[in-house]
Amino acid sequence: MLELAIGIILGCCALGAGAAMIAGIGPGIGEGNAVAAACEAIGRQPESKGDVTSTMLMGCAVAETTGLYALVIAILLIFVAPNLLVDILLKAVGK
Amino acid sequence: MQKWFRDIDPTVKKESLYIAAVTGILSLFLQAGFLIARHWDHTVLLGNLLGAVTAAGNFFLMAITVQKAVTREKKPAADLMKFSQTMRLLMQVVVAVLGFVLPCFNGYAVIIPLFFPRIAVMIRPFLDKKKQ
Known about the structure:
The complex is a heterodimer.
Chain A: H1 2-20, H2 25-44, H3 49-79, H4 81-93
Chain B: H1 2-7, H2 10-36, H3 42-69, H4 74-101, H5 107-111, H6 116-131
């Protein structure tokens, strides 16, 4: 029974990590749309290329953070949470 | 190599340098934080180096991609950006996993510097205001 409980904990952590990484798709789509809009803006006003690129870079850096949050949660779920949860379980059953 | 460096847009160079500089400064603060918390050892230094280089490198790669993308049509530009983001996220996943798996790195010291470019962007308006 204890092995089953540990297995469920590990399985749920892995599933959670996988689900968290779905958030990694979002920044890619967002950055793609932003760059497409920037292309249009530069096409209309080529002299503003420097300003548009600079603003784009800062915007992309902000957008990327969402993916990083997901990455951190996934990493913690894989490397930190299983040990913590198994320890809690073992303490609860008195082993 | 020199020609490749010359082809880089001055805006890309300027912004990448800014991000690298702020990442370096924040890394010093991170080291100080670990020292004060009495958790400092060589793994923290190595982990911080790995994380900071990855964060600055990730921004530089993104900037190079943006530079290339803005010269294309809308659809290919968006596709290039999506592909680049996926590859860079994968690179960061590999680095984070290495940080936690290899004993020579402190996992937390690898992960935290990945957020430094975000902080650099956040403090940018205040620095610009000071300059003005």
